Structure formats: C-alpha cells, structure tokens
Amino acid sequence: MKIETSVTRLLGIDLPILQAGMSWASSNAALPLAVSRAGGLGVIAAGPMRLDALEEAIDTIRAGTDRPFAVNMPLYRKGAEDLLDLLEAKRIPILIASQGGPQKYLDRFRAVGTICLHVVASELHAVKAAEKGVDGLIVVGGEAGGHPPADLVSTLVLVRAVAKATEGRIPLVASGGFADGQGLASALALGAGAANFGTRFIATPEAGVVDGYKQAVIGAGVADTRTVGRGFGMIRTLSNDFAEEMAALERAAAPDDQRRETFAASTLKMAAFDGDMRRGKLEAGQSAGLVSRIMPAAEIVAEIARDYVVCVRSLPQPVPTNAPQPAL
Fold first, then answer.
1. Using one digit for the tens of pLDDT, what is the confidence trace for 228-246?
2. 84 domain residue, yes or no
C-alpha cells in the first residue's frame, strides 16, 4: 500500500507514518529497521548513544534495507559535534534535529545530500526554521511524551496554526497524540503530510526498553500522564512516585533548588534501561491511553495504514443542496 503526501514524496517512503526518535526505545537498529522495512520512516534516537553504538546501528539498518531511515539528533547533548561529524561522514538519508537552531547543521548536511527535518513547538519557531531553509518540520503538540511545548498547546491547534503560518510552503509532520489510523487521518486533515508516532512504538518487541516500561504504557489511561519539571526541561511522564513527588513540590511552590534536585535525581535511563518504574522518568504521551497491546512494529505500521483507509472511506460525504432530502 502507498499513501502519497508531501512528506512521503520528500522522504521517499510509502506511508506517511514516522516512528518518533525516542531515547532508549529507538536508540538501536531493531525498531527503526522494522518500521522502515514496513514502508514508514524508522528513526534512530541518537540522544543517549555513544559514537560506536550509533555507527553500528546505522550500518545494521543499511545492511537490512535500502529504504530511507533517519537519525534524531538533540543538538544540546554533550558531544553533539562529534555525533554530527559522524552523521555527516555516514551521509545519512535524513536528519531530524531538535533543541537548537538549523544554522548549526543545515549547510553541512545539505552538502552531502541529507534531507533535514527540524522539530518545532511554536508558530514562531516554525516560521524561523522554514525561513532558514530546512526541508520539513515536525510540529510537536502538548499531548506528546518526552518534551512537549512549555505552553502545552494541543497538536490539534498547533499543527493547524503552523500550517496557516507557513502557507503550505513546507511539508509538515504532526506529532503528539497519535496512535492509530484515525489519528493519521486527523493529522492529514489538519494540513500535515504525515504523523509522528512515539508512544505507540514503545509497546513493541523491538523497542529497547525493559518489559515493565512497555507494560506501564499499555496499562495507562489517557489521563495517566502529567507534566513535571517546568523550568528544568519539562517532561510528560506516566504517573509514578517520582512524578507525584515533583507535582507535590510544584503545587507547594517549593524552592527552585529543591525542585531542580528532585527532577535531576530521576532519569529516563532509570526507567527504560534499569527498570525502576517508581523513581525513573516514565516518559510517554497521552496516547498511551489508546495503546492496549504489544505488537511487532511492522504490524503496527500495517494496522495504522489499514485503519486510515477505513476511516477515510467511512467519513460522511457532502450532500448536494439540490438533492432530495430524506423524509423525517
């Protein structure tokens, strides 16, 4: 199956389905490889990776498929320049950059033929990135796991606002709150050319997180996440002891130092890699409430595409105004 949009044409993929770059969950070859093979875009999350591990993941994906894949690169991380040098040398097909300006990477990657997508969380940053010349934008709304926008504007509103602000001049990927084919249909209706699926792909055998993390995702409801750490790199996380403690400190307007210390004492690695479900940062989006089972990544891609087609075909069609009206 193919679903052609501005984003699939830009990236050379069959389906407008992107697997989000998620630290630990997709800091490997297995998950991105499965998604790219299935016709979507698999994304390596370079955030927590060493140089040798990142190079190995890139080489493994290239050995396993000739389909496009991407590397998500947080520009703020320690050693970012060394990783960017590696990605440039490897001539990766697609770079997804976040938490920094396009001027840090755009010219050098364009010169080696890499398509550059930039992650944004506001109309202002979207317009600026587009003006700098990036090839596409990933627009992250407040429902997203990990690091949602500080103002928590919903994906429904933000993607539409960015589409209007950029006037269709640049392909958009909607991110935050998507878990199924109905979500994909809504993303395309808003003016995006694809949807970014993060939390849904945590619940896969290929995701590089402990089983307890996956079970926490499929056991969560739509209201079982919260945002904590405002001012210190705010995250959306599943509720656990860490999140409850942070929320209590924030409600009490505890001193910055106390809140910062508590926030920094917990990490995503503690939950995703070490299996500490109580004190680790269980980053996940509100769409966790739409995820009920663990499935192979390729089956998820196929299911999203099938459900999208069913959804679009079932939408009400306009009735001509001169057509006979049914009797009441």
1. 999 989 999 999 999 999 9
2. yes
